[in-house]
Every structure is written in C-alpha cells, then in structure tokens.
Amino acid sequence: MGGGLPPHLLFTQLGHRYGPVFSLLLGPHLSVVLNRHQEAREVLLQRGREFAGRPFMVTTDLLTRGGKDIAFSDFSPLWKMHRRLVHDSFTLFGEGSGRLQDIVRSSVDDLCLELLSGGGQGFDPSPAVTRAVTNVVCTLVFSSTYRHGDAELQEVMRYNDGIVETIAGGGLLDIYPWIKVFPNRCLRKLKDCIAIRDRLLSRKLEEHKASLSDGPPRDLLDALLQGQGQGHQEGEGHQEGGGITDDHVLMTAAEAFGAGVETTSTTLLWILAFILHHPQVQRRVQAELDEQVGERPVCVSDRVRLPYLECVINEGMRIRPVSPVLIPHTAMTDSSIGGHPVRRGTRVLVNMWAIHHDPEHWDKPDLFNPDRFLDDRGHRVTPPCFMPFGAGPRVCVGESLARLELFLFLSSLLQRMSFKLPDGASPPNLQGRLGVVLQPLRYKVVVTPREGWEGGA
Ligand code: HEM
C-alpha cells in the first residue's frame, strides 16, 4: 500500500482524495485517519476521555510487561493513577525545583566540550547529542552520570537503539499478531534487548529500595517508590486488582528512556539541520542571546526573554514532528468524530504531519519560518493546529521536561558556538527517515567557538 510511502505521507495523500477524515482497514483493524486539526482536537480534547484507549500490540506488550507503562497501557483507573504518579514525580524535578536545570546544564557543558573538541573538522553531531540526552535521563531516573565512553552508558545506548530499531520494524506483527508463532529475527532481538534493559534497571531498583529514605527523593525512581508506598496504593486502582507494582515502577523508568531520548535528541538534530539551511536564523538567535543573556550561563527563567529561540524550537517541531502520526488511540465507547459515527474499539490515527502542514492554516507550510509563531507586535502565539506533544488525557507526560531540555541545550550551544557546513558539503537532507520517530539522515557540521567560549564550558 502506498508504494513504500511512510504512513504520514500516505495518509496525507489519501486525504487529498478522500477528504480529511477517512477510514481504512489495517489488517483486520478498522482505523480512522484524521488529517485536520478540528477533528484531532475533537478526539484528543473535547472527547478525550472517549478516545483515550490504546490498542493491543505484540511488540509493545512485550516491551511493557503487558502494559505496565503509561504510553501503551489501555485506559483504566489504575493507568490513571499511575499516570498521575508519574506526572507528580516529574513535577518534583520540574522547573520550580532547579534540580532538573542542574542536571541538564551539567550534560550541556559536557556536550559543548565534546563538540568543540571536534575542532574545525566536519563531524556527525548525532552520537554526542544522543549521549548527552541519554545522560540527562540516566541522572533524572537513577542518579547516574556517565563520562564519555563509560561501559554502562554504552550498554544503555546499545539496548535502547536495539529496541527502537526493532519496534520500528514490528509494524506487520502489530497488525497480524499471529505472525509471532513463526521464527522472527526482529522479535528475538527485541527480547534480547529487553532482557539487558531489565537486568540493568532491576539492579538500579534494588539499590534504590535498599537506600530509600523518607527525605526528598534523589531521582525519579525514589519518587516512584515513595509514591508507591504512600496514597497511590489506595483508591480505585487498588480495587481493580492491585496498585502500582514494582513492574510499573520498572516500566516507567524504562519508558523515560524509550519515550524521552530518541524524541528529544532527534528534535535537536532536526533544528540543527534546519539552522544549517538557514544561517540567518542562527545569527538572529545568537543576537538575541548576546543581548538578553550575555556570557553568563543561560537559565530556565531566561525563556521569557528569548522569544525568538522559543519560536525556532516550535518551528522545528512543527515542520518535522518526531511523532508524525500519534500513538494509535482507540474509541472506548461508541462515539462520533465530525458527526460520523465511530464504533467502540475503532483505532484512531491522528496525522500530525498533515495538521502541521495544512496550507489552510500555515502559510507556505514547507518553509522553515520561526516568525510564524510571532504576532505583529512580536509576541509569541501558539496556533490551535500546533500540537507536537498531542493534547488531552494522553498528552505527552514529558512535555515540560522535553521543552526545558530543548531550551537549555539549544540556547547553551548557540551561545557558545556556531554551526556551519563543512566546505563543499551539501546541506542536510530534510526528507528524513521514519523509524520509531522521524529522523534526519546523518549529516556533518563544523563547529567554531564564539568569542569568549574558546574553552568550551
Ligand atoms: C506521549 C511527543 C519527549 C514521555 C507522547 C505523544 C507525543 C509525544 C506526540 C503521543 C500523544 C498521543 O498519543 O496522543 C514528544 C516529543 C518529545 C517528547 C515531541 C520531545 C521533543 C518525552 C519525554 C518523556 C516523554 C522527555 C519522558 C521522559 C511520554 C509518555 C507518553 C508520551 C510517557 C505517553 C502518554 C500517554 O499515553 O498517556 N509524546 N514527547 N516524552 N510521551 Fe512524549
């Protein structure tokens, strides 16, 4: 179907023929595709509760010990309680506490040193960026910070890569689950990576349990364990067959890697790729930084002073949403979308790519133009058809963490260094490749320190 086109482009093309809302059979599954923000907002927000279900999928069921995570677990009172606990735990380390800022900053300093040591040679920034984001998540989840080349960090990155690769290849298996009875290389690799992941995370969990106190949580694992021991054991979820178990805690930690590394590092790499195409955008961000921040380290409270940088981040997420089709939702009751009846159990695929490129709402949607997020008076605006993190009951639980990371990483990088193409190199390919997320193809950069930052950090 679609001659090899990735689903977001195929659905956009089908939308031109059949209209912005259409249904199709993916294997035996009736699936409704939404290409327009009006219907997407109806499903995600107005009828968010009715469409907050998730379908069963073989690969993610394996990955999450039968839905003990947030992203792939079906809607239930226990899921709601689990999501609230995770949300509260993230908030603990959120913008207010300063803790997260310290964690990200330390990783940014290492990244800057590493990039600047690349010298005037062209190199691929992707491994260093992914390592820096992985390090943030490791510190946030279990308080480990790794130096470049650390064996445990390599292990985390290796199994994470393996999981991402096999989940991306699992499409057919998730449409026809019975395929799993046949020998399957993809499924075997996924199981191996999950086993390595679980060994490492179980060890961290046991260490945390042994040293857990009533004091302020050191990290996400502490916060989850404390929450597990307090009120979160009670309430609706408990009556439904148990509260938050160790498996839930473990799967949440695993999900912080699965959902938090690839998405954030890929968004950073897309923005750098577009900046290489539009050097004037880099100069304007740097002028804003020089005027508003100068040479002191950038902090979270500078966000309000750096509106153009925030627009560059938004425009990067608009033009290349890393999750171009959202995780499938399912209708939990008979309902309707745009007046069309929808049966319980129907899958709903929100095509964020089509929504972020809808010419009715975006002028020249294929053009990278951060100014579209500013109004005539230079104030920031957020159009209703911009939803890179989804919306409603299933909105990304890591949104504020991701936004904080994107802001601190990009501001610190552009404050300290400039990016350009190696001599004679063509600018990065902007088509991208769809795996679990939509990634840019590898490209090379030359990094030069800005005045005063020759030492890096
Ligand atoms: C869900 C985007 C970073 C954790 C999602 C969804 C999107 C998204 C589009 C699906 C919403 C839906 O199904 O309707 C992004 C982007 C990120 C990012 C663009 C970075 C630039 C993170 C981070 C974490 C995280 C850092 C955690 C450490 C999650 C979780 C869900 C989710 C747990 C599932 C929510 C649910 O099903 O209730 N994200 N995300 N994400 N994200 Fe993120």
UniProtKB/TrEMBL annotation:
Gene3D superfamilies from the UniProt entry: Cytochrome P450 (1.10.630.10)
Cofactor(s) listed in the protein's UniProt record: heme
Main location, first listed in the record: endoplasmic reticulum
Pfam families: p450
GO MF entries: heme binding; iron ion binding; lipid binding; lyase activity; steroid 17-alpha-monooxygenase activity; steroid 21-monooxygenase activity
Any GO BP: steroid biosynthetic process
Domain of life from the UniProt record: Eukaryota
Cross-referenced InterPro entries: Cyt_P450, Cyt_P450_CS, Cyt_P450_E_grp-I, Cyt_P450_sf
GO cellular component labels: endoplasmic reticulum membrane
Record-linked SUPFAM superfamilies: Cytochrome P450
Family: Belongs to the cytochrome P450 family.
EC numbers, comma separated: 1.14.14.16
Main enzyme class: oxidoreductase
Membrane topology classification: Peripheral membrane protein
Residues annotated to bind heme: 396
Protein known as: Steroid 21-hydroxylase
Subcellular location(s) per record: Endoplasmic reticulum membrane; Microsome membrane
Key words of the record: Endoplasmic reticulum, Heme, Iron, Lipid-binding, Lyase, Membrane, Metal-binding, Microsome, Monooxygenase, Oxidoreductase, Steroidogenesis
